[in-house]
Amino acid sequence: MERRRLLRFLFLIFTSIFLFFLTFLNLPYSPSTAGCDSSGNHPSPWYCTNRFLLKSPTRHLHKSTRHHSSDVPHHPLDPLTLQEFKKVQSIIKSHALFRNSAYALHSVVLEEPAKQTVLTWQKGDPLPTRKASVVARVNGEAHVLSIDIGAQEVTRRETGHLSGYPMMTIEDMTTATWAPLGNADFNRSILARGVKLADLACLPISSGWYGTSELEEKMRLIKIQCYSMEGTANFYMRPIEGLTVLLDLDTKRVVEIVDKGKSIPIPKSANTDYRFSAQNKQPNLVNPISIEQPKGPSFTVDDHIVKWASWEFHLKPDPRAGVIISRVKVRDPGTGKMRNVMYQGFTSELFVPYMDPTDAWYFKTYMDAGEYGFGLQAMPLDPLNDCPRNAYYMDGIFAAGDGTPYIRENMVCIFESYGGDIGWRHSESPITGMEIREVRPKVTLVVRMAASVANYDYIMDWEFQTDGLIRIKVGLSGILMVKGTSYVNMNEVNQEENLYGTLLSENVIGVIHDHYITYRLDMDVDGSENSFVKVDIKRQETSPGESPRKSYIKAVRNVAKTEKDAQIKLKLYQPSEFHLINPAKMTRVGNPVGYKVVPGGTAASLLDVDDPPQKRGAFTNNQIWVTPYNETEYWAGGLFVYQNKGEDTLAVWSERDRPIENKDLVMWYTLGFHHIPCQEDFPIMPTVSSSFDLKPVNFFESNPILGAPPNDEKDLPICKASAAA
Amino acid sequence: MERRRLLRFLFLIFTSIFLFFLTFLNLPYSPSTAGCDSSGNHPSPWYCTNRFLLKSPTRHLHKSTRHHSSDVPHHPLDPLTLQEFKKVQSIIKSHALFRNSAYALHSVVLEEPAKQTVLTWQKGDPLPTRKASVVARVNGEAHVLSIDIGAQEVTRRETGHLSGYPMMTIEDMTTATWAPLGNADFNRSILARGVKLADLACLPISSGWYGTSELEEKMRLIKIQCYSMEGTANFYMRPIEGLTVLLDLDTKRVVEIVDKGKSIPIPKSANTDYRFSAQNKQPNLVNPISIEQPKGPSFTVDDHIVKWASWEFHLKPDPRAGVIISRVKVRDPGTGKMRNVMYQGFTSELFVPYMDPTDAWYFKTYMDAGEYGFGLQAMPLDPLNDCPRNAYYMDGIFAAGDGTPYIRENMVCIFESYGGDIGWRHSESPITGMEIREVRPKVTLVVRMAASVANYDYIMDWEFQTDGLIRIKVGLSGILMVKGTSYVNMNEVNQEENLYGTLLSENVIGVIHDHYITYRLDMDVDGSENSFVKVDIKRQETSPGESPRKSYIKAVRNVAKTEKDAQIKLKLYQPSEFHLINPAKMTRVGNPVGYKVVPGGTAASLLDVDDPPQKRGAFTNNQIWVTPYNETEYWAGGLFVYQNKGEDTLAVWSERDRPIENKDLVMWYTLGFHHIPCQEDFPIMPTVSSSFDLKPVNFFESNPILGAPPNDEKDLPICKASAAA
């Protein structure tokens, strides 16, 4: 007994030291120290450290010369500046609601002025009142506040009686991750698995909502699962399977420990590390290759306004959506005038359900934006690899839980892309014998962000083409969420389906999962009053004697009257085009001007619509939805997504079946992926991409890039290998 | 009467001069004079002219130093050399079948040795017997001949009793196009429309087969429709609507003239010309941009063998398929050995049905490979615009109707592409706090051809990724086939559907049509004996009490036993993965090695399956088919496609329902497009692209590009603007 007591004592001592050490270690990358001069009541806040600044200066071309402390907003949609964040922080600190209370700020962003105000605002006009929208939890209760920064006025917004909690703060995630180490039972479990506490890495896993426990109704819950870092940076491949800690996210108290997989070995570390430093160096199979622009890039970035070719738009980082693109306008080559295309577009929610119903897995049905903050998870981009040369990098400024602003450097990049594609071409054939060969290269502008939501990496692109097309693309890379198993070879497996995935390596199963990325596209096609037209492509049989043909296909236009007309499930054998038109604006020959959404990357959720995760992710029940503009309908999974019951989703809003003809419309599109992992995804996944397009359809009078010149030898750069090579 | 006679006389004189002039003018682009030293009996064959050699030397970087006259085959699949073509020509000329007969060679290509012979052949081995496969028509009858070039032996191959005719020769097309000018009624019709004969441009339109006329059964027919070139190079936008000439393709005799659209005005030429020289010069909105490789490209081309990164394959131009890729192998990063992926892949057929059942349009249901020769229509690529710098260009050598070889210079290009995409990446998030940011740029190798089948341009890419993925991509550009109309504004139109398309400009309708591109993919996944596995992704409901989840999705593997199991119609709500596996080869952990086809660019034909065009295009009845390897099953629409009845299609072969488990398999995939034209497609279409992928699935033990290095500043080029800029 004495010996056991001693051990326990040693554990506690060790754990405490370790916990302290890890808490310190476990700080987000934040190379800037901006915001750290504020006299916060945190002696050493995580966002002030620059201890872990990546030390590879030769690969960091972009020297951020923006100090941000002197940033001033110039556009109604410009995000809060460093100074504004600080004012908000001090307004809150001194406000009655917060005084003498425990509170955390789950979101501090610009409260955008009313759409009409922004639409009528012109450069040179005074800015509309600058307000912050703050989501705060005070003594366990959520408040949505509108803060007039100049007038220092705080207004509480009514949100109704919604289940669920606001997006986690980074502090929620980091402290929750390590909280189990304060629990001796947990530590014993870890050691019993043969893992040293120093080799432990844990992840905070949103617990969803299942209606199966009373705890769910009264507590903000999170589940923690852990991995061994021993011998690899890729701890994700070394799960301590079956060990799940249920934690009270508010008190960080361990509520329950389930330890069911003791017989499952932790997969070995061999061949899991993906870092270049861990590889056997081999000669590069591909010579250096680079996109070069001898006269520099053709775009300009003025604060948050990006101009390129015929395009102009406002771009800002957002802690929840990642990137928000607003006021997208394109120049009409005929009139020279800028024409509206989209008021605003962003990733409204991501839904990632895993397909394993067993105890340690069933709850993994992530909502990456509403639970984790998609923008908060966007890490600094790696110049020359995440984005090519000549890219421009934009920083994000976000607030920590206490309101202190911090800078996420190089969070978004903007670059021109040319991969050898062709904008348009025509050669005359030998049949006509005319000597024509006209070809135009295709150059595009890409806005990119890469979010690393724990293991997974999402590469989020908005690609603008000179012909008026916008391609919205998602690349999936990063690391699989894997399951430990005692199997080392498929010949031991009787019923393959019970793996719920693929055996990727000895003792490692890649579990089947889906990804759904739902975009909110507030389209303003040449004005705000639009209609949604479903152009059905249908077989028409001919009448007897009408034609030697028995059939042909025809296009039948159906204008959607109400929301239910615009709940679209795509069908290969009942195809349609999906147009958003301005019924009041016609082309010269009388077609309504429009943009169409061109689906791509389609996968439909197959979960039972009454399954709790699918109810929460009900915004994936259709691939396309159209709703009337409503400033409270931003987030497809609801304002408070964490642990909610799905009563505030796009599916619920749309069910009201409001009129949508000739209204200000919002279109929602969901990109989907079914992912059955394969061995090539181990230990890190080659990127898989999908995209959909917003494409002009009778928006222009004719091909808008008819006048584009071809490439000419004399304009291209003269290059040589770098002397350092 | 005298006056009329005089007019008629003048017409005839004029027409004769004009016809001569146009025949001379109307010669295909052929910059090389190779083959013209042969003592043919054509005094001035069209392929010998270089009158219309494009005169823009500054934009032609690729100086073809390959004279071809000394070409020697080095690989069993190498195409016929110039010398071999000439030998074939002389063997034919002196052969009994051809002596004293009118004949035309519709196809002269290498007769590929048996697959097994090619598979066992190794570099250094003597080449298998060189043979030519010739499709000839002699006195109106088609013959398929096998010609042993060395032994000068001619063998006739039995083709059975097939309807249809061989692919047209270029001479068929060019002479047919201008033949109506020998008909006075036709000329009168043209003049009556107000078109000068000198402004006339006509197109040869394959007539299909409808079973509605006796002529179809006994005559090789073609329809000719014409346009006015007055004021524009883009005559396609100026149709002489409703005037259709039915021609006997053998005698070039006019069989019938239908002239129904006299009241329809010819659309104006304004704004139709797309040539750069015809534009109002505007400043370029985009600065010069180029893919630069300071150490040059990383691929090698040795005759027809291309090697790049881990890939090796054989590449050759083909008059019918365009480009044929063979013996595709990839190096296993684990063992260092080359492993088979695909024996051969090419575009087997294109089916382009237009959706207008009226008299002048119903028959437009093109088969671009089997009727026109997709490779024959591939024009020389435009360096710096069709393909970026550092591209390698490959010439095609084809035979004219009399067997004389000619060179299609720069028909195919090969280049490395980098557009800023990411091969794989991972950053560690603030949650775990590890300082990791590993990103690898994505560089690919593209093989490109661009075919201009009259108005339309198809950009055909085979893109190889370092991670083992092959992307097969089609870009559609070029010019719409439009219909004249008396409408100038949609407000005149009562029943929109009766336009059969979109009013694009005054008097111009872009007619709805589909494109189907069917690929024959003779996969050899790590060996020739493969199985096709449909991995169904299905909802599984949980049992009561099993899980808080009601449902999840699971993957159910179904091995196809016979062909009908592999006739696949894609369904969004009944999704599957489609694997070709080698059931005899397992990974270390026991998964069968495989490749999957990842559908993309899906559109299904909606025509009635009993409609004559759909019977002929029945290979589009499914998106995927798998057949056992059969060397007679190459062309999805049949060996003789022109005017056939559809009795020799993939659909017919597959209906035999042969066993396909653990066999040498051929997979067929059809990319589809529904095209409802829009004004942006006028007067030339911005490229629309679609693609599908062949992707390794447990083919490699793990991510094959784990060891790839990141970009480093020191390796990238130093560039400056050209002094000439």
TrEMBL record, chains A, B:
<dbReference type="GO" id="GO:0005507">
    <property type="term" value="F:copper ion binding"/>
</dbReference>
<comment type="subunit">
    <text>Homodimer.</text>
</comment>
<dbReference type="Pfam" id="PF01179">
    <property type="entry name" value="Cu_amine_oxid"/>
</dbReference>
<feature type="domain" description="Copper amine oxidase N2-terminal">
    <location>
        <begin position="75"/>
        <end position="156"/>
    </location>
</feature>
<keyword id="KW-1015">Disulfide bond</keyword>
<keyword id="KW-0812">Transmembrane</keyword>
<keyword id="KW-0479">Metal-binding</keyword>
<protein>
    <recommendedName>
        <fullName>Amine oxidase</fullName>
        <ecNumber>1.4.3.-</ecNumber>
    </recommendedName>
</protein>
<dbReference type="InterPro" id="IPR000269">
    <property type="entry name" value="Cu_amine_oxidase"/>
</dbReference>
<dbReference type="Pfam" id="PF02727">
    <property type="entry name" value="Cu_amine_oxidN2"/>
</dbReference>
<keyword id="KW-1133">Transmembrane helix</keyword>
<dbReference type="InterPro" id="IPR015798">
    <property type="entry name" value="Cu_amine_oxidase_C"/>
</dbReference>
<dbReference type="InterPro" id="IPR016182">
    <property type="entry name" value="Cu_amine_oxidase_N-reg"/>
</dbReference>
<keyword id="KW-0801">TPQ</keyword>
<dbReference type="InterPro" id="IPR049948">
    <property type="entry name" value="Cu_Am_ox_TPQ-bd"/>
</dbReference>
<dbReference type="Pfam" id="PF02728">
    <property type="entry name" value="Cu_amine_oxidN3"/>
</dbReference>
<dbReference type="InterPro" id="IPR036460">
    <property type="entry name" value="Cu_amine_oxidase_C_sf"/>
</dbReference>
<dbReference type="GO" id="GO:0048038">
    <property type="term" value="F:quinone binding"/>
</dbReference>
<feature type="transmembrane region" description="Helical">
    <location>
        <begin position="7"/>
        <end position="29"/>
    </location>
</feature>
<feature type="domain" description="Copper amine oxidase catalytic">
    <location>
        <begin position="290"/>
        <end position="705"/>
    </location>
</feature>
<dbReference type="InterPro" id="IPR015802">
    <property type="entry name" value="Cu_amine_oxidase_N3"/>
</dbReference>
<keyword id="KW-0186">Copper</keyword>
<dbReference type="GO" id="GO:0008131">
    <property type="term" value="F:primary methylamine oxidase activity"/>
</dbReference>
<feature type="domain" description="Copper amine oxidase N3-terminal">
    <location>
        <begin position="166"/>
        <end position="267"/>
    </location>
</feature>
<feature type="active site" description="Proton acceptor">
    <location>
        <position position="368"/>
    </location>
</feature>
<dbReference type="GO" id="GO:0009308">
    <property type="term" value="P:amine metabolic process"/>
</dbReference>
<comment type="similarity">
    <text>Belongs to the copper/topaquinone oxidase family.</text>
</comment>
<keyword id="KW-0472">Membrane</keyword>
<dbReference type="InterPro" id="IPR049947">
    <property type="entry name" value="Cu_Am_Ox_Cu-bd"/>
</dbReference>
<feature type="modified residue" description="2',4',5'-topaquinone">
    <location>
        <position position="456"/>
    </location>
</feature>
<keyword id="KW-0560">Oxidoreductase</keyword>
<feature type="active site" description="Schiff-base intermediate with substrate; via topaquinone">
    <location>
        <position position="456"/>
    </location>
</feature>
<dbReference type="InterPro" id="IPR015800">
    <property type="entry name" value="Cu_amine_oxidase_N2"/>
</dbReference>
